């Protein structure tokens, strides 16, 4: 660190800086630069070396520039850089370092962040994950703030659509700015608090987010062509507050998900429990870890940390890596999915929950806790060591089947993971999960807020819809994001999306719902499905579902979505629902729009020819069809022993439905529970020639193997029959 730069190198740096400074002065920009390091062992596909070497920002003047370059070279031999190379087996003397000197982008006056051209949690390659916060980017990289996030679908983005699959507002509590804006040695920065007004707004417009995502696609394609293999990228960007222009600062290969093998599908599952939730944050990965929590504020406390402990701290940087190597999990107060703790946790295979806000104050040092990231985007910290299991499923070299094997999906946050299961698409995507867990408000309470019964409900709704121009836009935005995430995960394979099928008692449990729902004696056969969609009391709410679907198809370009009408009692009801859909711009046949209907009532089976004139396909709901064929309440324990989809009359109903649909030239599948539970029932369906079977995720692989064997056996028997 005490040596001078060789004179020829120093002279070359000064000369180049003079040219850059002159060009910047001509455009009225101060001659401030960023001095960034890049080592030959950095950003390799097998090791990220994230943040090991130094970067100096807002360096101005020849003397300050030469000093920053000298410190950059010296950072090749800090304690942490030496330890990291030692761990990864790199020769210290074989590592070289170059320095890039770039025009300083004044993101201190605007925003900056990180983006990946791959989903970092699932390895899904068709998405860009973009994060943004105010000020200099160091806060995002080091996890000092909880940034805004966008998830953007690459294939239709490049076709000219605007496919924002999700948008999440971060708290962005701090803004890193220059302590001395007139220049200095690159160390003169400070954090200041962000106003509540700015925290409540996104740090980028959607248009800017889409522009950056398009650039990520270009960068990924360039590096992939250069390397000859697909190369997902980790990219830093910044927005200049003086000009408003966006800049790419650096790009490097993503080092974890892009290298993960896909032959085995591994999933974690918590066993049922009643444990207290201590705190929650962003889930990194999908694993579970239990152990003793160590609340540590400084990496110098490593002596207190035992192998397998769970690290709980405000945030991490490269100095924490010796502790992280001993940990089985990490919880941070600050940071988003692209912060240092998240990146290193993925690389090391740790369970990580970042951006809890209060983990260090709510988790006691020495407490036994469980970190769970297997429940969607939100990671939960529970008290105690909870039982969990890890399931592994081999998914390579599966046999092909004539019968299409589809999958049932409810939670959009699981869709990217489920998309790696070999299937032909989604046979049932339910809106109920999105409405109950993400939106949480009755749609009519957003359209007619004056009717909401209690002040507490009105206040809770107002908090949820804050930031939206209208309450109904909140509903359409969140619903379209949930729909789109499932559609994107399986694109271009078909996704059959069932419109909402809550019963009145279930709708009443949503925020504000009690004012809009009747008290029905038997909601299971009451005001549900199609009968709601054209009813004056609910038609405007169904229109919001149509608007969300239209946004997914037309704005996002996800035309693989096939809407499906549930509980449609008569063909005339079908006409009324199709008319409402057409009034909202969803015209059957336009732009390839197909519309399916559930086959779950005896009237659907007996009148299948009339339904086939109005709809493009059927999906058998075996639960309701069994209930209504046998005349029993499937929710009643008193008659539960009579409920059996394999009962002869139920099978006869299904046989008739399949044969009529095929005679009318319509597709017919099944999305009920029975084929997942009963191999003999699956065989019956295959023998009858059903087009598709939609299964729960855990049943897809074994059922696919079983059906391939059934089809081979049936083909052999048919061949033998022809020969004789």
TrEMBL record:
Keywords: ATP-binding, Kinase, Magnesium, Metal-binding, Nucleotide-binding, Transferase. Its cofactor is Mg(2+). Residues 307-376 form the PEP-utilising enzyme mobile domain. Catalyzes the phosphorylation of pyruvate to phosphoenolpyruvate. Belongs to the PEP-utilizing enzyme family. The lineage of its organism: Bacteria, Bacillati, Cyanobacteriota, Cyanophyceae, Synechococcales. Its EC number is 2.7.9.2. Residues 399-710 form the PEP-utilising enzyme C-terminal domain. GO terms for molecular function: pyruvate, water dikinase activity. Pfam families: PEP-utilizers, PEP-utilizers_C, PPDK_N. The keyword Kinase applies. It catalyses: pyruvate + ATP + H2O = phosphoenolpyruvate + AMP + phosphate + 2 H(+). This is Phosphoenolpyruvate synthase. Coiled coil: none annotated. The keyword ATP-binding applies. It comes from Cyanobium gracile UHCC 0281.
